[in-house]
Amino acid sequence: MSNEKIPYKIYLEESEMPRAWYNLRADMKNKPAPLLNPETLKPMTEKELSKVFCEELVRQELDEDTAYFEIPEEIRNFYKMYRPAPLVRAYCLEEKLGTPAKIYYKFEGNNTSGSHKLNSAIAQAYYAKKQGLKGVTTETGAGQWGTALSMACSYFDLDCKVFMVKCSYEQKPFRREVMRTYGASVTPSPSTETEVGKKILAAHPGTTGSLGCAISEAVEKAVNTEGYRYVLGSVLNQVLLHQSVIGLEAKAALDKYGVKPDIIIGCAGGGSNLGGLISPFMGEKIRGEADYKFIAVEPASCPSFTRGKYAYDYCDTGMVCPLSKMYTLGSDFIPAPNHSGGLRYHGMNPILSQLYEDGLMEAVSVKQTEVFEAAEQFARVEGILPAPESSHAIKIAIDEAMKCKETGEEKTILFGLTGTGYFDMMAYEKFHDGKMTDYVPSDEELEASLKKLPKV
Amino acid sequence: MSNEKIPYKIYLEESEMPRAWYNLRADMKNKPAPLLNPETLKPMTEKELSKVFCEELVRQELDEDTAYFEIPEEIRNFYKMYRPAPLVRAYCLEEKLGTPAKIYYKFEGNNTSGSHKLNSAIAQAYYAKKQGLKGVTTETGAGQWGTALSMACSYFDLDCKVFMVKCSYEQKPFRREVMRTYGASVTPSPSTETEVGKKILAAHPGTTGSLGCAISEAVEKAVNTEGYRYVLGSVLNQVLLHQSVIGLEAKAALDKYGVKPDIIIGCAGGGSNLGGLISPFMGEKIRGEADYKFIAVEPASCPSFTRGKYAYDYCDTGMVCPLSKMYTLGSDFIPAPNHSGGLRYHGMNPILSQLYEDGLMEAVSVKQTEVFEAAEQFARVEGILPAPESSHAIKIAIDEAMKCKETGEEKTILFGLTGTGYFDMMAYEKFHDGKMTDYVPSDEELEASLKKLPKV
Question: How many CB atoms lie within 10 A of CB A3?
Answer without folding.
Answer: 12
